[in-house]
Fold these 3 entries.
Entry 1:
Amino acid sequence: MVIRPQTIIAGLIILFFTVTVLLYGPATTGPFFFDDYNSIMNDQGQVNPRLKNPFTALDELRAHPFRPDRSLAWLTFALSYRYNGLSPTAFRAVNLALHGLTTLVLYLTLC
């Protein structure tokens, strides 16, 4: 019996995903302090308008992809807010997905 490299790679990806979910999963229900809370909420407890439309941040990111500002951060905030409001689980899920995508792009680049 010969095991193909694609099977090994798929198995490693599934194993990595499973271990990540097992280790990171409990964090979705734990205490949460969002360090950018002051950016996304004003003093009266109202949500920043930039959170309500992820396309604004996406347009800024597309127009100036290499400018060192916070367009990508605002895009992730807006996606998280659209996904599930101010839920910590949404912010963590989007963060994890972004890091996973970045890892995949880096892996494909190196290959």
Note: Residues 53 and 73 are 13 Å apart (CA to CA).
Entry 2:
Amino acid sequence: MTSDGRVRGGVWKRRRPVVLAGLVAAGIVATVISLLPDATAPLRERIFDVMIGVRARPADPQVWVVEVGAENEAGLAFGRQDLARLITRLAAAEPAVIGLDIVLSQTCGATSENMALAAAMARAPVVTGFLVPGPSSGVPRPPPPIAVMQDAPAWDADSAEVACDDFQAASAGAALVSLPGGADGRVRLAPAAVFIAGKPFTGIGVELARRGAGAPLVILGRDGDGWLRLGDTTIPVDDLGQFRFVPTAPVQRQARTVAAVAVLKATAPSIPKGAVILIGSALPEKGGLRPSRASPLHPSVHLQADVVEQLMAGQAFSRPTTAWRLEVAAALLGGVLVLGLVMSLSPIGGALAAGTSAVGWVGFTIAMARWGGRLYDPLLPSLGIVGAAAAALLIAAAASRRAEGNLSARMRQHLPDALVDRVVDGSAPLHQEGEMR
């Protein structure tokens, strides 16, 4: 072997532990991303909450929420007769659609209240809600206009808790009002569609947004990842046909909220023609309060309004099914790149390169969420990059310290300890001149 070969071999022998330490650190992170997605999901979801919820979004003047209280304008319990009068008054404003975040599945029959409510629902396009899962009571009707391509992602159920037959016959359509909670109970996702006994139905937010935007139908399909097409807007959805939305803070909800009592008293602000109106309750006893990133007790009717607003604005988010592959590649390739820089730069330069690479990945994930609606984990791949650099720098520092100790020990065999100490701490130059004694 040549002298140059021996030198190169010696350099690799010294650097091999550094490289292996960096690769092991990046590999551990890549393994966690690929093999333990459920363990990292809660932290990742909280990070996504921050990523997509930083920007305040003004309320859409086309979307209104009418909150039903415990009492009507006369101080009596709010009943179906009052709901009928409420819908009649709202229909006079000629809205694009009225959505009921209420499942009218109880006390069916030809009572005067039910007949009055069915008659009121026939005055305007009213979309009734149904629940999945729930007590099985049949298949909703009428189905909204939706086209589903083969293998399109969606929920699937045998039956649902639906409104009474008279209300379904008077309505313009039926849509899903269920909102799934995450592992921590927070509502982050809205369903785009669900199959009930093989028939497709949309989520109520999707159906109201379709009518508000004047789109003829909704198309659900898959091209690698799932997607929902609403007019000219395409929204990414996950394997269950769900998309992520951003719940609004209480202060932002006030601008679009009207009390049902104020509508019945004719003291409510005028609702513009062609608006999307949701009717629901914010009362705890009605069971419509759900935890979200914006509030621990978020009325479901306002969550549905957030879905409508963001769909009409073309804003929705989804995590691609192959997101973990890109994250693993970022952790490994980024770690290898940083290792190369650490080996060729000073320790400070290597640390700066690792930090810059990690910040670059975070910036990429924010850009993809902001402009593409795609959610990628900004944390774990960054930890892979920084971890590879940190492990390499630590091993290199330890090797340097060990080499320094070995050199110092050999020098002490030939020179006084005091002189060696001065050379090591830099207070004495290596080149010493003679002294007169």
Note: The chain has a mean pLDDT of 81.
Entry 3:
Amino acid sequence: MARFTILLMFCGLLPLVPTQAQSVKYDISKIYGSSQHDAFTSMVTYKGAYYCAFRSGEHHVYGEDGISRIMVSEDAKDWNESATIALKGIDLRDPKLSVTADGRLMVLIGGSDYEDKTLRGMLTRVSFSNDGRHFSKPEPVEIDPAVRTDFDWLWSVTWYGDTGYGILYQRETESSCLVKTEDGISYSLVSQLNLDG
């Protein structure tokens, strides 16, 4: 904490004279619990309600059992399950919610195909809802042929105007690129991202 404070002081973000510490109270509550490995959350507001998506599976990795659960709350206190998305034989991972330009709730889900403990491929799926409860069958996203591989993972999409932008991680080449979409299904290359490590 001391290093962080000093850095902020050098950047001119904090006064040089120490101020009295303020206490902040946080209320923490669990919205879902099971004996499964529940993790990798995402949250948005949609049509006046809060939506939270997460992966639920037997293990962190190496499975065909990962499903996506979507919870809903009107007040961010009382939560109910609104949908479950699953694909037989595919480990659905890291569901990310967004609201499309045309007003649909979209969930982007990484899909890993394992044989025993060997990853055979990765393909992101997408599903849509008009009411936050009924989602379309997850369908594979279409990645620009100029960069597509058998181990693509498209991360969270952020919408700006009529266009959604996301980062495509490519495991085989350990590279990433910025892609864009107008329909949430087809993604074209914007730029390669030259990131070390």
Note: The helical segments are 2-10.
